[in-house]
Specification:
The protein is mostly helical and about 280 residues long. The chain has a domain at about 1-100. Helices cover about 65% and strands about 0% of the residues. Helix 8 (about 115-130) runs parallel beside helix 10 (about 155-165).
């Protein structure tokens, strides 16, 4: 995984020679909002200073800056919304991030619908952090998102992962996740769903075991790899229930080498940590 600011340098196309804006959070976004539509984005060094300083800034100053950052989230000025979303992510990481952002959940939730994956991805990260701090406020929002009509998406699957990670003993959240994961999904989304199951120690319910098992026969090899690891992570009962299929995958010459090898390791129980073995998202 690339460091956050290395990613920022790429996705924001930062110009080291650009005008130096004020480095304090509130003044930085006031300056950006006041800039011309065609103004150059901030320098990498300036943005790095602003984002890095959030963890060390007094809570009162963060709270004072939030209305300006919120306006920036809705801006169409060159990359400004993305800069504001990254600022929100850093605020959410703070120990007091829940209290600071509790009043901004509506605007943060709206980013989950953004076609810009930088914005929707940042929103998922924000809710990931906040769900460990103010679950009474964030879980209903995330559960509602999963229940909305429409085909499964990567963003919804990441929301499911957040709930499995932080709320695996919350029956309402777990039921919402199971309902979502049972929907038919394409290969890329299905892989993320299986990764969400296998990378979190969750109750191995009958429904969850069935969700993982049914993807063992999916034609995409990346899905099969993720399904094998999810079944393994769900424990002995899940492996025993799917043993016939797993043995077939291990022996079938038409399967890829990776699938056959992984199936063999699942049968032999030689995967020490399935959460570190997931194939990349496809």
């Amino acid at each position: 995984m690339y460091p956050l600011f290395a990613i920022l340098a790429i996705v924001l196309q930062l110009d080291p020679s650009a005008e130096q804006e004020p480095a304090e959070l509130k003044r930085f976004f006031e300056h950006r909002l006041a800039a011309r539509q065609d103004a150059l984005p901030p320098s990498y060094e300036t943005l790095l200073t602003v984002i890095d300083g959030i963890s060390k800034t007094d809570a009162a100053k963060i709270e004072s800056a939030l209305p300006v950052v919120s306006v920036a989230l809705k801006s169409d000025i060159n990359n400004l919304a993305v800069e504001a979303a990254f600022a929100m992510t850093e605020i959410a990481k703070r120990p007091d991030g829940g209290s600071l952002l509790r009043g901004h959940l509506v605007e943060l939730e709206s980013l989950l619908s953004s076609a810009d994956t930088r914005l929707s991805g940042a929103a998922v990260l924000v809710f990931d952090y906040l769900t460990t701090r103010i679950p009474e406020a964030t879980v209903p929002v995330l559960v509602d998102r999963l229940a909305r009509p429409g085909k499964p998406t990567i963003v919804k699957s990441e929301i499911a992962r957040v709930l499995l990670k932080s709320r695996k003993n919350d029956s309402t959240a777990l039921r919402a996740v199971e309902n979502y994961l049972e929907l038919d999904a394409d290969a890329s989304v299905r892989t993320v769903n299986l990764q969400a199951i296998g990378s979190n120690p969750i109750p191995a319910s009958l429904r969850m075991r069935a969700i993982a098992a049914r993807s063992l026969d999916y034609p995409n090899p990346h899905v099969k790899l993720a399904a094998l690891l999810a079944v393994y992570a769900l424990g002995p009962d899940a492996r025993r229930e799917s043993l016939t299929v797993i043995n077939r995958l291990a022996a079938d010459p038409s399967e890829t080498f990776e699938v056959r090898e992984m199936a063999d390791r699942v049968v032999k129980g030689t995967i020490s940590d399935p959460t570190k073995k997931f194939p990349g998202k496809r």
